[in-house]
Every structure is written in structure tokens, then in C-alpha cells.
Amino acid sequence: MLSETVAYEKDINKRPDSKNEKPAPQPPRTSGGKRMGSGFNFYWIYIIIIAILFGVYFFANGETSREVGYSDFGRMAQEGDFSSLVVNTKTGICVARLQKAPEAENLQSIKQAYDQAKAENREFSIETNIPSADKFAEDVERWSQAEDSQFKADVRYEKSGGGWDILFNILSPLIMLLLFWFILFRGMGSKNGGGGGGIGGIFSVGRSKAQVYEKDNKMSVTFEDVAGLSEAKQEVQEIVEFLKNPQKFTNLGGKIPKGALLVGPPGTGKTLLAKAVAGEADVPFFSMSGSDFVEMFVGVGASRVRDLFRQAKEKAPCIIFIDEIDAVGRARSSRGGAPSNDERESTLNQLLTEMDGFGTNSGVIILAATNRADILDKALLRAGRFDRQIHVDLPELQDRIEIFQVHLRPLRLAADLDIKKLARQTPGFSGADIANVCNEAALIAARNDKTFVDAEDFNAAVDRIIGGLEKKSKVMTQEEKHSIAVHEAGHATISWFLKYGNPLVKVTIVPRGNALGAAWYMPEERQIVTYEAMCDQICGLLGGRAAEELFIGAISSGAANDLERVTKQAYAMVAYYGMSTAMPNVCYYDSTGQEYSFSKPFSEERAKVIDQEISKIIAEQYQRAKELLILHQDGHNRLAQTLEEREVIFTEDVEQIFGPRPWTSRTDELLKESEVTEQNPSNPSNTL
Predict the structure, then answer these.
(1) pLDDT for 632-651, tens place per residue?
(2) In 3D, which of 328, 315, 399, 341 has the Cα closest to residue 369?
């Protein structure tokens, strides 16, 4: 089973020094309930308005009222002191308008208040709590029919809540208006409203969301924290050097690059390089994601692009970093009638104009990162916008050694741990995968109550990441176990005797993930692959199916993954690499990424030829695998038996059965060259 490429983003867990870190300066507050430079607070406006409304309601009508008991109220009613009665059935209060002063001795205080109100030309009223509306109606009838009664007041019944209801009715529209105004100017994400400060809320929706790193909040990552990536580091270091010492380049007539695009598979360290640039450069650094330009409101993306470049021009010279630029820089549709996102295209058009349009944009350098450079618009990639495309590839052997050295620093390691062997066992791994391997190894060692992390823990971690979780609880019959052992032994036997077969690490029949068994190899790191090497790979993948047919007499479904990879490899040889005798030097691969969506690039007759050639290559290698297994039948049977008994065997066990492998590993040669280079670094002929 070959190792596969896994996504990566190297992480440096480095905290800034809290003692040396200065707090970021606080921007001056503005309106919307915020404090201004003069110290005036707009909350006082709300308090003043509410106080005025209370005063208007309670004092501006010029009315005075007094409260009396219900019995005194009835006596005053019979004496004809009231001109009108207003009964509130909701609150149980009756308000009577007084038309003359009461004559009772116990009501002299009310008489004095009435006389004073008359002198000041104000209305005077009496309030009392009624038992109930029905009881009050009976009392009114009794008061009016009593002997010598002078009751002539008009009676009116209401259901309002009184003064507080009236006050609420007056204040509620104003409160809603103030609340809306408060949210509009201060709420709705004003804290993240934009880098330019000022009013938040919906007025900041078109402002840039870029994070600004300057001297006060400088990024702590430097180029020393980036392991490997020597060529890519040299490219971005030159940009930083130009900003620090521009005379070195301008004296010779050179100009600073306007933009650099970091291109590479996911997780190869593109964002980490940008963080290092932010930490090394002595200029403002604007960091923003491509998805930050995308918004549901029409025109917001273009507005944010304008605001970002406006801020950048104000602080020039500076650097703008746009991560995952493919979110906004995807190629514009060129087919009529095809659906397109007008908002995204208008954002892209604005970005193109700002990067290199009619206006000047001096002193602003654009850094961007993407793993989908094939789908970016050609106008975005042209010189003058992105002058450089820096390819950040998966780390080579020596780079992986350096990355392991970085991530192994915090671990307590065994004394005999071989870092170079770990790097050999992880081809195609990125720095994030290596960091994950180190962390998994530490967790496995802690789970087993070890005091140090040794090679066994790292091997288990690699198996865990590539193959998945070990499923010891899965029950298999003896027949299934024998079939799997024969199958995996077939892979190991074939790869051992093939010139371009990958070196074997171990073979296991313990289920992991979706696989019932696996053979772990150490894939060779080749820049180009020959026809013979591809045929050897196909032959090795078919070894399991061939062993089942030869030594069991029946084939099973266990070779499904092998056959899928064999078919794809053979199709690539015929249709992409031109390695077919019937149709040589022909390639139907579309490097533009369109993948011929609407029609095949070849005729039906040519498709039939491709199928025939694929079947021919697979049949030839399958027959070759069976011949090798027949030639080494005894060794295969011993290997399968050992595997069935122990469930896991390693390279040493295979070597005891078949003897030393007849072919030298290219990876071993690279390691030997690396050791010679370390001993004699001045010799240029020994460099990798």
C-alpha cells in the first residue's frame, strides 16, 4: 500500500511574550453611545429626553389632585361637589372633577388645596378607590335618589390603564426609534465593522475586514520558524529585503514586484510563509481571506476591495495578504447563457482594477495563496498584478528531516530514535502531517505509560494516520484469515523482486479502517517515472489477486482497491503519457482544468483502442506476477504461514526468507549523499 499525499498547514505554537507585548492603541470613540474626544456621552441625551417627557406629562397640564376615602367621596357626591366622574374599570380608580369646595370639617385640607388651585387658575380633582364597577354603579344610583341629594355629576366609564398606559403609549414609539438608532450606529458587529474605524453596524458592511499587523501588534512568526521550503523562502525574503532596503535594487534600475502568488497543494506552508513575512517586514501587513470579500449584499465585495486598498495606500509601503484567493478570483464565465455570480465577478473586476488599473498603486505589494491556481482568472495571473508565482511543493527528504527536528523539540524522545528513518517512512507527508505524526506518537506513548517516545510509537502513529484505526475487535474466520495472508504475502513477494518495486516496511493482516490487511511500503521519491517503473507498480498491485488464484484456487473481493489503482495507472499510461504501442505520443490530458465537460476529446474508435491497450497492459503484468509467484512459491508459502501466525511481519522477516533484496533503494542513495554533504558541505558535487 503506497503512502498518499495528505493536506498540510504547518503550525507554530509560539506565544508572544506578554511582558514585551504592548497593548494595541484604542481608537477614539465616536457617536452611537460611544465616548468622543471631548468626553461627552450621548447617553445623556436619552436621559434628558425621558425627563422632559415625564415633566410634560405630570406637570404641564396644570392639574392638582387629592385622594380621599370612599365614604367621604360618597358624602361629597351627595352634596353636589363634583361636576363629572371618570371611572377606570381596569385600575378601580374614580377621578372626580371638583366644582366647589367641600364643607365637611375633616376635609379642610382639600378645601385649602381647592382654593389655592382656583387662585392659580388650575383644575382640581379628587381620586378614590372604588369597590367594583357594579357596586359603584349601585352607589351612584343610591346617591342620586337619596333625600336632599344634590348629585348632578356626569358619570363616564373607561378601560385604560391610567397614566402609565398613557405614558407608555407616548414613549413606546420614541423608545423603538431610539433602539433602532442605537442598533444602527453601534450594534450589528461594530467591533468587527472594519479596519478603518468609525461607525459600525450596517454602515460598515462595505468596509474591509482585514487584520492589520504593525509595530505595536507584530506577528511573532519569523523565517526561522519555517523549516524546509528554502526556495520559496528565498523568493519572499527578497520582497521583505526590498521593503527594508529599496536602494539596493532601485540603484540598478529594478522595480519592486507588485504581487507574488503562493501556489501549492493544501497544507504545504503557504500561510506560514505569509505569517513569516508579516513577522519579518517592518511595514504594515494587511491579512484577509478571499471569502471575506463575499457577502450576500450586492456591491459589498467591491466596496471592501476599495476600502482595503484605500487603507493600504494610506500606510504605504505595506503588504496585503489574501489567503485562499480562489474564493474571489475564479475565472469569469466566457460561455453565453451559462450561470455566473455577478457579485463575485464585480468583486474580481474591482480587485483587478485596484491591483493594476488606471490609477497608481505604488508601495503596495500583494501576497496571495491558493491551491487552485488552475481555476484563477488569467487576467489576475498576468504580469503587473502577480509578477511571481512561487510554487510551494510537498517537502522532500531533507526538508522532512528539518520539519521533524522542529516538531520533535517539545517531545521526550528515546536516545536511539533515528530522525532520518522517520523522514524516509513519511514520503508525501507535509509538515502538518509530520506534526500530527509527532503528536500521535506522544499520545500513543502516554497511553502505554512510557517515559519516552520511541520508534515503535512513531511507527504506530504513521500506521494510524495512513491506514486508520486498528480494529482488533473485528471477527474473521480462519478461511478469511488465510485468504488475506496469501493475498498480502503475494504483494510482499512480488515487490521484493521487482527492480522498481517500493521497499517493503511491514505486512499486516490486522484490519485498519476499511482494509482487512495491508502491505506498507516506502515509496521512492522520483521526479520522473519510466515505463518500466509503472509496469512494476502495476505488477506489484496485481500480486495479491495472482496469489489468490494460484494458491487458493479462487479469487475474492479483497482486491477491489488494487484493481481500481491498476486501472487508473494503466489508463494514465495510455491516455496521458503516450506509453502505448498502438497510439504512442498521444496525450488527452487537459491541463487547463476544463476536463472536457461537454464532449470526449477522442472518437469512439479511439476509445475502443484505449480500452484494448489498457486491457493488454494489465493482462501482461498479471501474467508476469503469476510467473514470479510460481518461481518463488516456497518463499511465498512460508511468508503467508508466518503472517497467518504472527499477523504482522517486518522487512527483517522477509529478508530471512528471500535473502537480501537484489535492488538498491533510491532513497538510501539520497540519504548517503546527504550524509556526505553534511560531512563535506563545501563540495558542490555532493549537494542534493
Answers:
(1) 999 999 999 988 888 888 88
(2) 328
Per-residue pLDDT averaged across 43-58, rounded? 64
* Nearby residues of 255 by Cβ (< 8 Å), 6 or more positions away: 249
Q: Taking a C-beta distance cutoff of 8 angstroms, is the pair 262, 392 a contact?
A: yes
pLDDT of 130 higher than 80: yes
Q: What CA–CA distances, in Å, run from 161 to 31, 39, 168, 172, 417?
A: 37, 41, 10, 15, 84
pLDDT digits (tens, 9 = 90+) for 395-434: 888 888 888 988 898 998 988 888 888 888 788 888 888 8
Predicted pLDDT of residue 612: 94
Rg (CA), the chain: 42
Secondary structure letter of residue 88 according to DSSP:
E
Phi, psi torsion values for 16, nearest 5 degrees: -70, 150
| Cβ(567)–Cβ(575) below 8 Å | no
DSSP code string of 550-588: HHTSS--GGGHHHHHHHHHHHHIIIIIS---SSSTT---
Considering only the C-alpha atoms of the chain, give the largest distance between any 2 of them, rounded to a whole number of Å.
Answer: 138
Euclidean distance between CA atoms 85 and 93, whole angstroms = 10
Q: Is the pLDDT of residue 106 over 80?
A: no
Nearest alpha-carbon partner for 538 in 578, 502, 580: 502
User: Are the CB atoms for 459 and 445 separated by under 8 Å?
Assistant: no
Residue 595 — very low, low, confident or very high, per pLDDT cuts 50/70/90? low
In what helix (H) or strand (E) does residue 390 lie, and over which residues does it extend? strand 388-391
- Selecting among 235, 343, 345, 488, the annotated active-site residue is 488
Examine the residue annotation and report whether 644 is marked as an active-site residue of this protein. Answer: no
User: Which stretches within 120-197 are classed as H helix?
Assistant: 133-145, 163-186
CB-CB contact of 81 with 153 (8 Å) = no
